[in-house]
Amino acid sequence: MASLDNGSAMASFTTIPEFYQDKCVFITGATGFMGKALLEKLLRSCPDIRRVYILIRPKKGKEVSQRLEELLNSEIFQKLNKENNDFRSKIVLITGDIVHDNLGMSEQDEQTLIDEVSVVFHSAATVRFDEELKLSVEMNVLGVYRVIQLLKKMKHLEAFLHVSTAYANCHKRTVEEHIYDPPIHPHKLLDAVGWMESDVLQILTPKMIGDRPNTYTYTKSIAEYLVKEECANIPTAIFRPSIVCATWSDPIEGWIDNYNGPTGIMASLGTGVLRVMRGDRHAISDIIPVDMACSMMIATAWYTGTHRSKEMKVFNCTTGSINSLTWGDMEDYTRQYSMKNPFNTVTRVPSLMFTKCVFWHDINVLFNQVLPSYLLDMYMWSTGKKPIFRKLEDRLRKATAILDYFTNKDWEFKSDNLDMLLAVMSPGDRKTFNFDPRSISWPRYIEAYCLGIKCYVMKEELAELPKARTTLKRLQRLSFATNTLVIIIVWRILINRVSIARSMWNFLLHWVVKFFNCLPKIAKIT
Asked: Is 490 exposed, middle or buried (0-12, 13-18, 19+ CB in 10 A)?
């Protein structure tokens, strides 16, 4: 059973850096997008932290030491490298994997964590929406259970923060800051997954997840209840971020390292490949910058460790109810700044339409995406290059279909605990660990986000912007000429084949000629 040393009981007025002073922290998921930002923020803003243990597994033939080096060479660590290049000495690598018993750690590493760690951030998970149920349960539920078994052995644990998602209960339109009953008891699900074959589970998945859109939200909701049951005597908080995207300002603007979620939409819009999506322009796109999410994670663990709450608290980290951005806003801003700072790989003039009508969506996909992809591939083939656009369009269509559920709906996420947390923080902490959504300017954020995609994801140089702008202007002229030609051809066909169109054309020409004949008479009168 985890216990709190009397000597480590902290007063409620302790600042956040003081709370982490001389403490050891354990992070799972440190190589992920949020994990990188969390690790960097802890080391930079809590400089007196003693050690940070991070769990890393071998992946794709890479040793864990190589993965750690790649993590620390990420652009988000540039500022920390300049301010304190000795920060690496505080990072301790733990080889392991949440899909294995005892997290796949050696006995020595496990004992070190038991003896030294005071704060635990568990963010390791599969975030793929279309993940097979067996693997999703293995990582998002059983992985949580394995972490909790380690927590119960820790001698000095003061705070455990479990990272969930605001969409864990997306079958409800209003999401309160409390733990909801799961669709199935966690241990029953673990038992079933333990003996069922993957192909059987795959067949049963739609019935099992019910009114939830995917295995990700399904397993995340079950994991929350598991934490509630298993961590009753552990100082625990559940943290629910919404759609975590590029940094707002800390340590740099617009940092992003993946194509997940809105990033893929924005990149595809900016290159001109994505033309239409199913969605409601007026629905809220609940985006939270990753630096704000990580600052709130650090503050939440501080609050959990310094305030003895009788109930396990849930913190919704969202923007929609405080400073909202709609999908239509995101589309407009992305198109605006993709025109201002175009991608080198732009193939068509950026333009995206959201529609709730399935038929109109499918028609536009056919004529605005599928057919142009064939034409672009024919051009690639004719110039001796490998055709790529048809496969790209197919992958893009499947990826956006997964997001349909979220772009067509609105949710109200209650955020009382976010405001409470800001209220109990000192002015200095509120400045250093800013997570107030009211401070975000969405036009400025989307502009930095687009530049971040260009620089950090697509690896394009800003020095190449003049060339990209020239390419975009050429595409604009080509688009105007093509659209004009299409209109002329369609109109000629109509007036030749449809009598009503021909009559309207003759009527219009008659009045135009009559108007110009009257101009000399009007000039004499005036």
From this structure: exposed
Q: DSSP E strands: which ranges in 320-393?
A: 353-355
Q: What is the DSSP code (8-state) at residue 326?
A: B
Written as one letter, the residue type at 25 is V
54 SS3 class: strand
Residue 116 has which token pair?
């030294």
Q: Are 17 and 46 in contact (CB under 8 A)?
A: yes
199-231 as b/e: b if 16+ CB within 10 A: eebeeebeebbeebbbbbbbbbbbbbbbbbebb
* C-alpha–C-alpha distance, residues 480 and 486, integer Å: 10
pTM assigned to the model: 0.90
pLDDT of residue 3 exceeding 50, the answer is no
Segment 464-493 mean pLDDT: 87
pLDDT in tens, 350-406: 999 999 999 999 999 998 888 888 888 888 888 888 888 888 888 888 888 889 999
Cα end-to-end span (Å), the chain:
97
Question: How many whole angstroms separate alpha carbon 304 and alpha carbon 31?
Answer: 25
What pLDDT was estimated at residue 12? 46
CA angle 132, 136, 142 (to 5 degrees): 145
List the one residue out of 281, 236, 294 whose CA is nearest residue 120. Answer: 236
The two tokens of residue 94 are 């733990």
- Cβ atoms of residues 317 and 240 within 8 Å: yes
Q: Crossing angle for the helix pair 442-452 and 262-270, nearest 10 degrees?
A: 80
Task: Give the closest residue to 146 by CA, choosing from 227, 59, 225.
Answer: 227
- Residue 317 pairs in a beta bridge with 241
User: According to the per-residue pLDDT averaged within each range, which of 362-366, 447-451, 504-508, 520-524 is highest?
Assistant: 447-451
